[in-house]
Molybdopterin synthase subunit MoaE
Amino acid sequence: MEPRVRLAAISAEPIDVGSVIEAVGDPHAGGTGVFVGHVRAQDGGRDVSGLAYEAHPSAADVLAQVIEDVLTEPIIAAAAVHRTGQLVVGDVAVVVAVSSAHRGDALSVCTALIDTIKTQVPIWKRQAFDDGETEWVGL
């Protein structure tokens, strides 16, 4: 039997969304929940020029544990990849995929997983605005 945590990675390179989805593919899965997070052009009414993510050296291990902790019994597989480094508006920052026999389980666990990643994995975001100011988000 394959492990349920199929992919947990921190990457300085652009994320291949298809490979994350492919990682959770399984002939027993009837549904796959996917979240793709992009760098957005505005935050709090301010224009964003880009951002940078920094990760603690333990981030990949913490990510794998978070995935394992969030999985419920009906989930077949889960995967997540988070970017680090300099990103611009429109870049993919994070991808989460969860497969299950039924869509409801896949979608609800996908939501829980991205919410938990944002609060527990030691990755920090420094956002840059068009006016030249920067701020750390979530510290």
Remarks:
- The mean pLDDT is 95.
